[in-house]
Design brief:
By secondary structure, the chain is mainly alpha-helical. The chain starts with a helix and ends with a helix. The protein has a single domain, classed as Glycerol uptake facilitator protein. Helix 3 packs across helix 6 and helix 3 packs parallel to helix 9.
């Protein structure tokens, strides 16, 4: 049982290390890829998902996202008894991955003057702050993620027993879900930064809050509920519609 939680931690940590890492590489001052742009960021996040799924798939099913865990549970494809442990492991993994990014890029973080740029390395934020619109963006992005995953996955899978590998992103292979995340980022990511994953946002936001940085601003806790509530709601809607039409 402990193995599934360990690999959710490791897979999520790898996802955030690569995802926050590509943002840091692109936006921080004096990196060799400074200014590489949005396409590099979206591809980097997709490949981060690929790496996380490859690592965790054989052991935990590779949810690496509380919204995915909740979506499968809402749809009856995943045991609710495993949900708290999965989400805790994912949140801690997100924090750990962001901590490694901080250590890796700390010199570049400290010479970057813009506070918003530093925060963007760790977590998402809206281009235009309007909470209803921001929540809607996260709901739609996560709906596309989870609803599409339901159609990747064979819907006859049963709720796992303790001896089964739980259903997750690993059930569909790493490449399809990586391409799905790239597509969401390129098409729908420009409004809020497409968190579509509470662990990807909340854990790294705590890292930004805790670690010392020059020119450090706030961690925007006023916005922090959006990339948690929006993905959870999007996953719920995706599950309910899938159940209704299947």
């Amino acid at each position: 049982m402990d193995t599934v939680y360990l690999y959710e931690f490791i897979g999520t940590a790898a996802l955030v290390l690569m995802g926050d890492g590509v943002v840091a590489n692109t936006v921080l001052k004096d990196t060799k890829s400074h200014g590489a742009g949005w396409v590099v960021i979206t591809i980097g996040w997709g490949l981060g998902v690929f790496i996380g799924v490859v690592i965790a798939a054989p052991y935990s099913g590779a949810h690496i996202n509380p919204a995915v865990t909740l979506g499968f549970a809402f749809a009856g494809m995943f045991s609710w008894s495993l949900v708290p442990g999965y989400i805790i492991a994912q949140l801690i993994g997100g924090f750990f991955g962001a901590s490694v990014v901080y250590l890796f890029f700390r010199r570049h973080i400290n010479i970057t003057e813009d506070k918003g740029t530093k925060l963007a390395v760790f977590c998402t934020g809206p281009q235009i702050r309007s909470y209803p619109s921001n929540v809607f963006s996260e709901v739609v992005g996560t709906f596309v993620l989870v609803f599409t995953i339901f159609h990747f996955v064979e819907p006859t899978f049963s709720t796992p027993t303790l001896t089964d590998v739980p259903i997750g992103l690993g059930s569909i292979g790493a490449l399809p879900v990586a391409l799905l995340v790239v597509a969401i980022g390129m098409s729908l990511g420009g409004t809020t930064g497409y968190a579509i994953n509470p662990a990807r946002d909340l854990g790294p936001r705590f890292a930004h809050f805790l670690y010392p940085m020059n020119y450090k601003g706030g961690s925007d806790w006023a916005y922090s509920w959006v990339p948690v509530f929006g993905p959870a709601l999007g996953a719920f809607i995706a599950a309910m519609i899938f159940i209704a039409i299947w």
